[in-house]
């Protein structure tokens, strides 16, 4: 079990928790909570695998991701008040998941001989599509399209990944640096309350 795999599972758990909490706030039942938890956690990676022809998608090849998502949903169902009080910890875990999912998505793209632009797109989609699906399922405009440095952190990390790959930096070191960059940008933006500019109205 590699460090990246552990971080991947940690990010899956964090994303699943965010989906489950969103479902609780919308007063969904147990099934709705589990669906939103799972979609948020594995939606982006599943779409990525289908697009590159990696069939069956990862969630069906390693059922651990499914169990992690369901476990997170059940924990929120029974202990949602306690979980929400640990909001800062969830933000850290979410940032770790964001960075990990980004570099995994890019790595999968390059493995399937997709160019750098396409690989970065896959990385961003892997990290953000699940959250977008969560928001759409609960009838809201996706959070990633409205505010906060989120997808843009993935893009920045993806560009760093590409630059280091062109410079032939060892893959493991590249993954670590790029994922750390995404995590750092995300956490700093939360601390400093950074947001992308919006048109004046």
Mean pLDDT: 90
Morphology? globular
Structural class: mainly alpha
**Rg over C-alpha atoms, rounded to the nearest angstrom:** 16 Å
- Per DSSP, the total helix count is 8
Enumerate the spans where pLDDT stays under 50 for 5 or more consecutive residues.
Answer: none
The total of beta strands comes to 0
Distance between the termini: 51 Å
Fraction of residues in H or I helices:
over 70%
Strand fraction band?
A: under 5%
Order of helices and strands: HHHHHHHH
Structure, explained:
It is built from eight helices and no strands. The chain has helices spanning 3-25, 30-52, 58-61, 64-85, 87-111, 116-137, 151-166, 171-192. Helices cover 78% and strands 0% of the residues. Helix 1 (3-25) crosses helix 2, helix 2 packs across helix 4 and helix 5 (87-111) packs antiparallel against helix 8. It starts with a helix and ends in a 9-residue tail after the last helix. By secondary structure, the chain is mostly helical. The mean pLDDT is 90. The relative contact order is 0.14.
């Amino acid at each position: 079990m590699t460090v990246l795999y552990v971080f991947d599972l940690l990010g899956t758990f964090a994303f699943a928790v965010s989906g489950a909490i969103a479902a609780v706030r919308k007063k969904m039942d147990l099934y709705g909570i589990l669906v939103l938890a799972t979609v948020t956690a594995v939606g982006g990676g599943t779409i990525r695998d289908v697009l590159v022809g990696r069939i069956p998608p990862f969630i069906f090849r390693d059922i651990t991701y499914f169990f992690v998502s369901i476990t997170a949903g059940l924990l929120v169902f029974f202990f949602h008040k306690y979980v929400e009080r640990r909001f800062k910890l969830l933000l850290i875990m979410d940032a770790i998941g964001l960075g990990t999912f980004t570099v995994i998505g890019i790595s999968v793209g390059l493995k399937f001989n997709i160019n750098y632009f396409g690989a970065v797109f896959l990385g961003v989609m892997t990290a953000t599509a699940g959250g977008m699906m969560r928001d759409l399922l609960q009838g809201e405009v996706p959070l990633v399209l409205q505010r906060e440095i989120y997808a843009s952190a993935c893009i920045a990390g993806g560009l760093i990944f590409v630059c280091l790959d062109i410079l032939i930096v060892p893959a493991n070191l590249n993954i670590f640096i790029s994922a750390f960059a995404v995590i750092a940008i995300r956490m700093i933006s939360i601390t400093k309350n950074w947001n992308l500019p919006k048109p004046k109205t």
